[in-house]
Amino acid sequence: MELDMIARDTLYKIQGIRLLCISTKCCLLASLLAISSQIHSSEEEDLEIALALADVLRAARSEIAHQQPLINEPSDDAKNLDGERVVELVQSRLASSGKADLLDLADGSRQDNLIQAQLDAIREVINENQPVINRSGVGFKGFVPAVFTRLVNERFGEKAGRAAKVKVTAPMELVRNRKSRPDIWERGVIEQRFQSESWNEGELYAELTELAGVPAYRVMVPEYYGEACLSCHGDPKGSMDITGYPKEGGKQGDLGGSISIALFK
């Protein structure tokens, strides 16, 4: 009888240990699932912010491309193309493309703050380049979309600090400005993914990695030559374009570059 009670007591203890182990495993699994869900949610938010920054940059660049005839007008007539006006045009361009929600900056969220910093950078770059834009007697000012975009990204970097960085880069053979050269990670994405025959055209790439030793969620958005790009980057290859650079001989639809966004953790 005593042995039977001891056996049953031992069995209960073993079962209790098993139940405790099962309970602990369930709690651990639930915790891991919760952490995984949080990570996934954080990356989704980061991707949304990165794409919003890319959208604003593209809209601003497109507007400056659209304004090239006015910018390069050599007359003394007032152009009325100051920073505030350009920001208004960029906002209008975003709204007309169904992205007006990017302009609702009332919440004070991380995305709102970064978009505001980007709009401020656009405004400041345009205002600081008024002497160039309004220079009379000069038919080509050199204030092309690529120059404007680089200046905006540099100013945005100053404003965003260790929160975010935006850059436009390209395959090494297409880079014209050394400041735009891809880093090791960017070059790997371009050469191993975007230039791969198996890569789907237009598909972006995102990864939680690091930049300059700091953990960062990095996104690369590929960009392809459109018809308007070919006046500077098309044929005949090697001939000089309006900016004084040799043309690359690109064709419409060729990979021309990438917007690289980093959101620091």
Low-pLDDT residue intervals, each spanning 5 or more residues = 1-38
Percent of residues in beta strands: 5-15%
Give the oligomer, counting copies of the same chain as homo and different chains as hetero.
single chain
Task: Average the pLDDT over all residues and give the rounded result.
Answer: 87
Elements, N to C (H/E): HHHHHHEHEEHE
Global Rg? 27 Å
Number of spatially distinct domains: 2
Question: Helix count?
Answer: 8
Number of strands: 4
Detailed description of the structure:
There is one protein chain. The chain is globular. The chain has two domains: 43-161, no CATH class; 163-265, Beta-Lactamase (2-Layer Sandwich), CATH 3.30.450. Strand 2 and strand 3 (214-224) form a beta hairpin. The longest helix is centred in the N-terminal third of the chain and has 65 residues, at 2-66. With 265 residues, it is of the alpha+beta class. Helix 1 packs across helix 3 (83-96), helix 1 packs across helix 6 (145-160) and helix 3 crosses helix 4. It has helices at 2-66, 68-71, 83-96, 110-128, 130-133, 145-160, 184-194, 230-233, and strands at residues 164-169, 205-211, 214-224, 255-264. 52% of the residues lie in helices and 13% in strands. A four-stranded antiparallel β-sheet has the order 1-4-3-2, sandwiched between helices. The protein contains eight helices and four strands; from the N terminus they run H-H-H-H-H-H-E-H-E-E-H-E. The model is unreliable at 1-38 (pLDDT under 50).
